C-alpha cells in the first residue's frame, strides 16, 4: 500500500511545457470509506487514506495547512510553488499528483519517461537509499545511470527529501555537477528513477585501486573540477553536505562531476535557518558539525574538499575515524584543537563535552612534509578549524596551488582507467574473500592468500555513525509500506542486532568512551611520496576478523540507512534541514 501509480502517457522528454497541455485527460476523485481514490482516464493515480493525506498536506503544501496553522508564506526556495493550473497540466501529462505537489517546478518542461523505454544492463551502485543501474536508453541508444530512489509517498518527510534532491539537481547546471536528465515513474512500484549521464568511475574507486597513483597535475585537475563544481553549487545557494570520493564521479574523458545531492540543502547566508549537524560522511565531516553546529555554511563542503585534496596526494584517506569521538580527536591531532576565541564565539552545543584539557598543536606542515609545497597553504586553509577561515571555493580556485608549476593537466589527458567504482573495489574484496575461503577449505592458511590489505574497504561514515533508535524504527515503517518490492526490503528488526555499532547515541557522545589516547596513538600516519600506497582505510585485522567485519558491514548496509538523512528521522533534535 501507499504506492502511487503515475500514468505514463509518453516516452521521451519534451523541452516545451506547452506540449504537456495537449493531452486531454479526464480526472475524477471518489471516496471509499476514509480512502480517497483519484483516477485519470480511468487509471488509479492516487490512493490515500485521510490520515496520511492530512499529514502530507500539512507538511508539503503550505496552502493546505489546517486552519490555525495556515500562514501566508513567502516563496520558499526549499519547496516547489507551482500554480495549481500548471500542476493540473503536469498531472495530465502523466506525473503523479504527489510529485507535482512537492516538486512541480522541477518537472516543468518534462513528461515522465516510461520504465520500459530503458533496458537495464547491470547494477552499478548501491547507496543508502537507492540502487543505481547502468541502462540503455532505447530511444537515444545512450548509456545512462538510473538511480532508483526508495521512498514512501505516504511519508511526507520521505517525499520531501526525495523532492528536494530533484529540485536541487534541476537548479544546477555546470559541467562539474551531475545533470539530471529525466525522471521515470512506474506503475509497478513505489520507486522513482532519476536518469543521469553514465559515469564510468568514482574518485574513491580510483584512489583505492592498486594500479592508480596520481601525479601532481592530475591531482590539480581533479581538485580544480571539484572546486569549480562546488563554486557553482554555493553560488546557487546549495550546500552539498556529503562531499566524499564515492560521490565524485568521473567519466572516460576525465570529467569530474559532483553527484548524490541526497543530503544537499538550499541555504541563504542572509536568511539563516538552523540545519541538522548530522550530515557529511564521518571521515569528511568538519569539526563544527561534530561539535553540533546548526548554523553553518559553505565551510562544511570546503573542509571535505580539503580532506579529498590531502587524500589524493597521500593515496589514502587522511582521517579515517570509526566514531564521532575518534573523528574529532583525529582532527585535533592534525589540525589542532579550537582556539579559546573560537570556543567563545562559536557557542557550539557539544563544546563542553569535547574541549580537551590540554590544547592540541596544529601539525599539518610536518605531517604532510612530502606533499608539493604549493599544496600546503591550500590544505591549511581548507582544513582550518574555524569555518570562517576556510573562505570560499572561488578563493581556493585562485590559490597558488593552481598557479604553480606543474599545472593541472587537461581532463582529456588523464589516463583511461578500467572501471573503478567503489562498487568494483567491493567486488574485488568479495572475490578475495571467496578465494581465501576456498583455500581455507583446502587446509591452507588463509593468511597466505590474503590480498593487499588495501582492499579492506573503509567503513563509510553512515555505518560508523551512532544511530538513533527512532531512525531505525522509521526505516522499518517505510519497509513495511514498501513491502511490495521485495529486493528493496530493509532487514527485519531482529537483524538490526547485527549492526554492531552503538545505537541511540548520536547527540549524546559519551565522553567516557574516549580512552586516554589509545585510539589516537595508533592512527597517526606520515606520508612520503616514495612510499607505496599501503593499507588505506578501515581498521586492520586478521583475515578472520576481516571476514567478520565485512559480514557485519553488509548486515549493516540497510540498518545504517537512517543516518544518511538524519534530520528526517531525528525527531529528538530541533533542527531543520
Ligand atoms: N551517473 C552515474 N553514473 C555511474 N554511476 C553512478 C551514477 N550515479 C551514481 N552512481 C553509482 O551509484 C552509487 C550510489 O549513488 P548515489 O551516491 O547517488 O546514491 P546514494 O543512495 O545517495 O548513495 P550513498 O549512500 O553512497 O551516498 C555511487 O557511489 C556511484 O558508484
From TrEMBL:
Signal peptide residues on this chain, from the entry's feature table: none
Residues that bind ATP: 147
Gene Ontology biological process: positive regulation of transcription elongation by RNA polymerase II
Biased composition (Basic and acidic residues): 50-66, 419-434, 555-577
Any GO CC annotation of this UniProt entry: nucleus
Protein name: Protein kinase domain-containing protein
Region of interest (Disordered), residue spans: 46-85, 412-504, 530-577
Segments forming domain Protein kinase: 118-402
Lineage: Eukaryota, Viridiplantae, Streptophyta, Embryophyta, Tracheophyta
Organism: Citrus clementina
Family, as annotated: Belongs to the protein kinase superfamily. CMGC Ser/Thr protein kinase family. CDC2/CDKX subfamily.
A molecular function GO annotation: ATP binding
Keywords recorded for this protein, A-Z: ATP-binding, Kinase, Nucleotide-binding, Serine/threonine-protein kinase, Transferase
Amino acid at each position: 500500500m501507499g504506492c502511487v501509480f503515475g500514468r505514463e502517457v509518453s516516452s521521451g522528454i519534451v523541452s516545451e511545457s506547452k506540449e504537456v497541455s495537449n493531452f486531454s485527460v479526464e480526472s475524477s476523485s471518489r471516496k471509499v470509506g476514509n480512502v480517497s481514490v483519484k483516477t485519470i482516464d480511468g487509471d488509479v493515480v492516487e490512493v490515500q487514506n485521510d490520515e496520511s493525506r492530512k499529514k502530507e498536506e500539512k507538511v508539503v503544501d503550505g496552502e493546505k495547512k489546517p486552519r490555525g496553522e495556515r500562514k501566508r508564506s513567502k516563496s520558499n526556495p526549499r519547496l516547489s510553488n507551482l500554480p495549481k493550473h500548471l500542476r493540473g497540466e503536469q498531472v495530465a501529462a502523466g506525473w503523479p499528483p504527489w510529485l507535482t505537489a512537492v516538486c512541480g517546478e522541477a518537472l516543468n518542461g518534462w513528461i515522465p519517461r516510461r520504465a520500459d523505454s530503458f533496458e537495464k544492463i547491470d547494477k552499478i551502485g548501491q547507496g543508502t537509499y537507492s540502487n543505481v543501474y547502468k541502462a540503455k536508453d532505447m530511444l537515444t541508444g545512450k548509456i545512462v545511470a538510473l538511480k532508483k530512489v526508495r521512498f514512501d509517498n505516504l511519508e511526507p518527510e520521505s517525499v520531501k527529501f526525495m523532492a528536494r534532491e530533484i529540485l536541487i539537481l534541476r537548479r544546477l547546471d555546470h559541467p562539474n555537477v551531475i545533470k539530471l536528465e529525466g525522471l521515470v515513474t512506474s506503475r509497478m512500484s513505489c520507486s522513482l528513477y532519476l536518469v543521469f549521464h553514465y559515469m564510468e568511475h568514482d574518485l574513491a574507486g580510483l584512489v583505492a585501486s592498486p594500479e592508480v597513483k596520481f601525479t601532481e597535475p592530475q591531482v590539480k585537475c581533479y581538485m580544480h573540477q571539484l572546486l569549480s563544481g562546488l563554486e557553482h553549487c554555493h553560488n546557487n545557494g546549495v550546500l552539498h553536505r556529503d562531499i566524499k570520493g564515492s560521490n565524485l564521479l568521473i567519466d572516460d574523458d576525465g570529467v569530474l562531476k559532483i553527484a548524490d545531492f541526497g543530503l544537499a540543502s538550499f541555504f541563504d547566508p542572509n536568511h539563516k535557518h538552523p540545519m541538522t549537524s548530522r550530515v557529511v560522511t564521518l571521515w569528511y565531516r568538519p569539526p563544527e558539525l561534530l561539535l553540533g553546529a546548526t548554523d553553518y555554511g559553505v565551510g562544511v563542503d570546503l573542509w571535505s574538499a580539503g580532506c579529498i585534496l590531502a587524500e589524493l596526494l597521500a593515496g589514502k584517506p587522511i582521517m579515517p575515524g570509526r566514531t564521532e569521538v575518534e573523528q574529532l580527536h583525529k582532527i585535533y591531532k592534525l589540525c589542532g584543537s579550537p582556539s579559546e576565541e573560537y570556543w567563545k564565539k562559536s557557542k557550539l552545543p557539544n563544546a563542553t563535552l569535547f574541549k580537551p584539557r590540554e590544547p592540541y598543536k596544529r601539525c599539518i606542515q610536518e605531517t604532510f612534509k612530502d606533499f608539493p609545497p604549493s599544496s600546503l597553504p591550500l590544505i591549511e586553509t581548507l582544513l582550518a578549524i574555524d569555518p570562517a577561515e576556510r573562505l570560499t571555493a572561488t578563493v581556493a580556485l585562485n590559490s597558488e596551488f593552481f598557479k604553480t608549476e606543474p599545472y593541472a593537466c587537461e581532463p582529456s589527458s588523464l589516463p583511461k582507467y578500467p572501471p573503478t567504482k567503489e562498487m568494483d573495489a567491493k567486488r574485488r574484496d568479495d572475490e578475495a574473500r571467496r578465494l581465501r575461503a576456498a583455500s581455507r577449505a583446502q587446509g591452507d592458511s588463509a593468511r597466505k592468500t590474503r590480498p593487499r590489505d588495501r582492499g579492506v574497504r573503509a567503513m563509510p561514515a553512515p555505518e560508523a555513525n551512532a544511530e538513533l533508535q527512532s531512525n531505525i524504527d522509521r526505516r522499518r515503517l517505510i519497509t513495511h509500506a514498501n513491502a511490495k518490492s521485495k529486493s528493496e526490503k530493509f532487514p527485519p528488526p531482529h537483524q538490526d542486532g547485527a549492526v554492531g555499532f552503538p545505537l541511540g547515541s548520536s547527540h549524546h557522545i559519551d565522553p567516557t568512551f574516549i580512552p586516554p589516547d589509545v585510539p589516537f596513538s595508533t592512527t597517526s600516519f606520515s606520508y612520503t611520496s616514495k612510499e607505496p600506497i599501503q593499507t588505506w582505510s578501515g581498521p586492520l585485522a586478521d583475515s578472520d576478523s576481516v571476514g567478520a567485519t565485512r559480514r557485519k558491514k553488509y548486515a549493516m548496509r540497510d540498518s545504517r540507512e537512517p543516518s544518511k538523512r538524519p534530520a528526517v528521522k531525528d525527531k529528538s533534535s530541533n533542527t531543520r534541514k
